[in-house]
Design goal:
With 405 residues, this protein is mostly helical. It has helices at 2-23, 29-32, 36-43, 47-68, 77-97, 101-130, 135-142, 144-160, 166-187, 213-217, 220-241, 243-250, 254-258, 261-282, 293-304, 308-337, 342-369, 374-399. Helix 7 (135-142) packs antiparallel against helix 14 (261-282). It starts with a helix and ends in a 6-residue tail after the last helix.
Length: 405
């Protein structure tokens, strides 16, 4: 009932957050990777070469995010989202016309910066600023845009492969982005004042302070949390990036594997709502230590999965981790470092996330070229997740007393 009342009172802003996160889909790995086979075929690329191109483009976008993410501290979401969405639409058009691998690097850069980077950043920062006491609920509801994109777009676009050329599908993606813009502008015609423009709404972090990005980067807690931030992005991105290779090695059909996305999404949705409720009820410190564990378990199950049924189980467990991560990670930064500089702080975290999504495909692609199939890489990745959970738990135990609440 709390969720329904909250949605009824704030539906304009929550729907805007949903549209922002949904539109980020066109720059997310799970969408771009649907075209991996066609891209590799058109440009004559191996798995390692395609992964390298993706890594270079995504790394450039991660570096740019360090600067671009700060813009969310200076401009309203309405104005910034308009510019970013226009840029995303142009990047989709460029993908439809890209002629060689050099230009492909720049197109990947543009898609990742505008889609995964800035649109995701806008969605999270907007919820953190617009809502205080119900921050967990707001983040979980806005995150439904990510879930909806993962559940709907892969199934629809894979089906469209039968009747449309892959380049034409990127033009369709550009049209969908453009069509979304007027709806978002209408929803945000009376946008709430960002907390950065209203000092009385600020919530302090550790030791009662509002940490700057520079101070955060020098704190011990930040370094303990780096594996938690990088891991899901790096290896989760690799999972979807290598899905074409994965199904070939396992002997599954791509259509059958993609059809599991709604199951994965349902698990992520349930976990997202549960974690949003838990954050508001018990605090983000209770959620963060456990959010890496389902990722590790999911990869362990997928490593041994020999049927589509077990692949579905692995993806479902992985989806639980994704749901916990979608709210826990976003709520962690304002809780421990304050809200006054949350845009610049979140941009550093977003840059790490984007960088993680750059190294995941590159590392796994290189190992594939060396003869280590992706399923054989999954158990070491699972160990990484469990180690990241341990470091995050230590950080929470060490620094939680400094919150003073």
């Amino acid at each position: 009932m709390d969720y329904f009342r909250f949605m009824h009172r704030n539906w304009l802003f929550l729907l805007a957050g949903f549209l922002i996160t949904f539109t980020s889909s066109y720059g997310q790995t799970y969408f771009i990777s649907l075209f991996a086979g066609e891209i590799k075929g058109d440009f004559g690329l191996s798995d390692g070469q395609w992964g390298g191109i993706y890594t270079i483009g995504t790394t450039l976008s991660a570096i740019t995010m360090i600067w671009a993410g700060v813009l969310t501290d200076r401009f309203r979401v309405r104005a910034l989202a308009l510019l970013v969405m226009i840029g995303l639409a142009l990047a989709c058009v460029a993908m439809a016309w890209v002629a060689n691998w050099v230009l492909l690097v720049m197109v990947i850069f543009a898609l990742r910066l505008t889609g995964q980077g800035m649109m995701s950043q806008l969605g999270a920062v907007a919820m953190v600023r617009w809502f205080e006491a119900s921050r967990g609920k707001a983040l979980s509801l806005a995150s439904m845009g990510f879930a909806a994109g993962q559940a709907i777009l892969p199934v629809v676009f894979v089906a469209l492969f039968a009747v449309m050329h892959w380049r034409s599908l990127w033009l369709l993606a550009a049209v969908l982005v453009i069509v979304t813009i007027p709806f978002l502008l209408i929803l945000l015609r009376r946008e709430r004042t960002p907390q950065s423009m209203a000092d009385e709404a600020q919530i302090a972090g550790m030791n009662g302070r509002h940490w700057t990005r520079g101070e955060m980067l020098r704190s011990g807690l930040f370094f303990l949390m780096i594996p938690m931030v990088v891991g899901p992005s790096a290896w989760g991105t690799a999972l979807f990036f290598q899905q074409v290779h994965l199904v070939e090695v396992k002997g599954w059909e791509l259509v059958a594997f993609v059809a599991l996305m709604p199951i994965y999404t349902l698990a992520a949705v349930v976990a997202t709502f549960a974690s949003g409720w838990a954050i508001d009820r018990f605090g983000v410190s209770r959620v963060v230590p456990v959010q890496m564990i389902p990722f590790g378990l999911g990869f362990a199950v997928l490593a041994y999965a020999d049927t589509i049924f077990w692949a579905g189980i692995g993806l479902m467990i992985f989806g639980v981790g994704q749901g916990l991560q979608s709210t826990g990670a976003s709520a962690f930064w304002p809780e421990y470092f304050g809200t006054r500089h949350i845009g610049s702080i979140k941009s550093a975290a977003a840059a790490l996330m984007v960088f993680g999504s750059a190294i995941g495909p590159g590392v796994t692609g290189a190992f594939i070229d060396f003869g280590v199939d992706f399923p054989d890489q999954m158990l070491p990745i699972a160990v990484y997740y469990f180690a990241a959970a341990g470091l995050a738990t230590f950080g929470i135990v060490r620094y939680r007393p400094t919150l003073g609440r």
